[in-house]
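Q: What structure does this chain adopt?
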Amino acid sequence: MNIHFSIPPEKQRIGGLDKAIFDLAEQLKLQDHEVSTDENKLPSEEVQLVHFHGLWQPQHRAVYKHCIKNDIPYVISAHGMLEPYAWRHKWLKKKVYFEMIERKHFTNAKAVLTTSNLESSSVQKIVQHANIQSIPLGYNQPQVNSHALAKGNLGWDEEKTHLLYLSRIDPKKGLSLLLQALLDNNFGKNHQLSLHIVGEGDSSYMRELTRFIDTNKNRLPPIDWVGPVWDERKWDYLSGADLFCLPTKSENFGIAVLEAALCGTPVLTSPYTPWGEYAALDYFYITDSTPSAIQDAISTYINTSTKERGEMKTWAETNFLWSNLIHQYIQFYRDLI
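A:
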């Protein structure tokens, strides 16, 4: 197959979007398919299918017109941009643009591809497209250290319960709620906590969180503000953590959750992510994005966590490694062509 990815500019491919696009392209190439990824060029004559990634891109309009004129089938992935939280941000501007531009693009699409049932439901409410399909994002097998070795590499106290927040630092991600949940609560004398914050974000919001921590330092557990660690070093944080915490208000997938799961690390997150589907699994702690609910979930983890980490790791590998997923994408594309 010969597929063209029409993608947003680099500065807009924040978070997991960049990784999602280029990992998928690389996996298709490994299966001997041609994939072009250019944000400005029109598809070549050899292209059999166009996959649009993201919305609100003026440069996509020329590509849409090219597809219609040349009878090239195309598929659209909104990548969370139609989730309720995202839709509410600058909603009037988005609503006008959607009705004037995007809705027609969706109408002519052969399919709409989402990464979860949650996203499919959100898209359906706005688009009402007949062919909405869902395939999760994948991940290559990471090489990670054991829980004990990772903790040792980081110099973490074995006697403490280490919570990890590793993500972009943004109001929607819920770090402020996590900090509020930790106020005045050590969860019992035998469970001293430590919170490690890995990430970066808007400087004014970072200062706001820093002031909160400084003002309440006597009411909070020890907090290690690590900063951005996005290279291979992040794996020791993910593997060494006892509980990964991302009480986000919205996430169309949540790559960081998958990364933690591939290390076997239990996860605390919200039902506003695709991972809410797995609330019945013992290694997920699905909680509403409020300080009291987060506090209760941490207490539940401390008091009931008995599962071997290997069980979660095996589950994540079976369901989300690219080697087990890429053929679903290939069949999806073939059906459209």
